[in-house]
Amino acid sequence: MYKFEKSFYSKTSMYSFVAVMILFFSMWFSTSNFVHIDMALLGYAISSAVFAIGLTIRMSFWMWRKATNRVAKRSIGNLFTKERMKRNGKALVRTLIDNIILQKFIFKRGLYRGIQHLMISWGCIISFGITFGLTFGWMRFDLIDSETYQIIVFDMPTITMAADGIFAEIVYNGLNIGAIMVLIGTGMALYRRITDYDVKVTQRFEFDILPLIILLAVTVTGLFLTIMYTFLGGWMHHYMSLIHQVTVIIMLMYFPFGKLFHVPIRPLATAVPMSYQEVIKVDTKSCKSCGQPYSNDDQIADVQAILKSQNFDLQLADGTYLSDYCTGCRRRMRAMKQMNLESPQGNPYGPVNTNNGIHLSGFSKKRSEEFYGLDQDAKEEKIDEPISR
Amino acid sequence: MNKIMYLEFERCIGCRACQAACRECGDHDAKERNFVEYVDFTESRQTFPMLCMQCKDPACARVCPANAIQITEEGVVLSAMEEKCIGCRNCTFGCPFGIPKFDFETNKMYKCDMCYDRTRNDIAPMCASVCPSDAIRFIDFEEMQQLRRKRTQMNLVEGKKPQEGNKWDYVPEFFGVYTDSQS
Asked: Which keywords does this Swiss-Prot/TrEMBL entry list (chain A) (predicted)?
């Protein structure tokens, strides 16, 4: 394995090579030695391969980050621990249903945003599924007899359907349904991005609006294709299919490098119920100072390891780290340090000494003698002097 | 932007006007992102305001597994990007000052962004614009330097000279976002 890795320029290029090889052989296998390949989709196939390379590179670099690496490693380690099976299963199912399929947390941010995101995401998932399925030949339709189609997935015959049945209509129009969903979603998102002042505070055109425009271009050109062959008798269909192909390729090239990259990193959200906070809002580790629970041991260990690996020195004199204290105590420690209110014993969470002799806490307080810098010798002299003077 | 946030904890009177103002700021979604807390309620009534330091190399961004915390070109550390944030709360534990807050309902982290839409245009952030006792100020870098010098001079007038070992005891807190360029 080590030698195999050495034959590549870098690990990332090895992963990219493996990804492309998997795609190539899956294509070979599912089109039964390229017999059933759809030549009209060759452009899509090549751009999808480049897309796979881009995605692999981005994922590798993302995983290389200290924080991501640490969290992912712990999650993968926990995934194969026998004692955690029940918890893992629960976490995976909950994240899949709540977070990815239903996207409940976005609906809590607002119904409008929820519908908008659900439309875009599911429209994209449907469209991507069908497009990749057809371009790589993972899925194809075979005519069994004059009235029955069979869906063949990975060269294995699956369900049959009547060629003019309702189910068949839905399957044929899968891309149209997806496109209409994305059209509604991107329309809603664009409207929100343009009119909502709150969103405008941090939004950037190239990051937040450009992906919407690209998605919109793909869906509109795709829907125009349908309109052209159903209502206009194929007028300008050839040119439009080229334009559509160009927009799709732009989107595929943009995907790993722009905002859309949030899709492949979302599954990491499983790490939270799986390795960190099992039940929402229930903490198990208590603060070193006030004793209130604020986190759990595994997470604090990870945070400290990540910070240490990046040369953040947040260790206090007594050996504890700042992350051993709850957020409230950390704020208090900072304020006390700045106001010189720390107790003279140097115990940052002991009783407060409100008079440090420099900054006075109240108008009636007197500063300590030593503040005025009278040196000890002068004082002693005074004491020794006769009272009459 | 060459202005900075200037905090003087001792001036805080605990009115919490800054928090009320923070809730009104654009994109803050009616939730305050700053803190006003007692130093030690049993000892004195001294409160202090607490804002994000807008670190140059923020620990919160370094511990984020999703790479969701971004820094603007002006140097403002923004809240986690909503689409990337996976809701692990590493940032709240990594931050040495305990600044980021987390909303479990909507699964997103939010923190002081210095009212980015205001400070970007050299307008004082909401908290600084309402503070009645000037505990939070949004001032020029030069003005801050003057205030610091004055503070040291006041101590000198009273006969105390900062020594090498304790000179920081005399400096009030200052922090903020300032770039080297004059733009």
From this structure: Membrane, Transmembrane, Transmembrane helix
Q: Which residue has the higher pLDDT, B38 or B162?
A: B38
Rounded Cα gap, residues B172 and B145, in angstroms: 11
- Listed by number, the residues of chain B in 112-151 with a beta carbon closer than 8 Å to a beta carbon of chain A are 113, 116-117
Beta bridge partners of B137: B6
For chain A, what is the mean pLDDT? 86
Residue A385 lies in a domain: no
Please answer yes or no on whether B65 and A67 come within 8 Å at the CB atom.
yes
Both A32 and A13 in one domain: the answer is yes
Which residue, B112, B88, B108, is CA-closest to B98?
B112
Q: Do the beta carbons of residue A368 and residue A357 sit within 8 Å?
A: yes
Contacts of B106 in chain A (CB under 8 A): 105, 108-109
Does the pLDDT at position A153 exceed 50? yes
Domain B1-51+123-183 in this protein, CATH class: alpha beta
Proportion of chain B above pLDDT 90, given as a percent: 50
Q: Are residues A228 and A312 in the same domain?
A: no
Range of the domain at A47: 2-273
Mind telling me how many Å the CA of B180 is from chain A's nearest CA? 23
Do A234 and A327 belong to one domain?
no
For domain B53-111, the CATH class is: alpha beta
Q: Which of residues 352-371 of A touch B (CB under 8 A)?
A: 352, 354, 356, 358-359, 361, 367, 371
* Token output for A328: 């409230």
For residue B115, which of A204, A206, A202, A192 has the smallest C-alpha distance?
A202
Chain A residue numbers with beta carbons less than 8 Å from the beta carbon of B78 are 202
Ranges A43-57, A242-256, A320-334, B150-164: which has the least confidence: B150-164
Q: Which two tokens stand for residue A339?
A: 């106001």
Q: Total domain count for chain A?
A: 2
- Compare CB distances from B97 to A262, A312, A330 and report the shortest one's residue: A330
Domain edges within chain B: 1-51+123-183, 53-111
Contact check, Cβ <8 Å, B65/A68 = yes
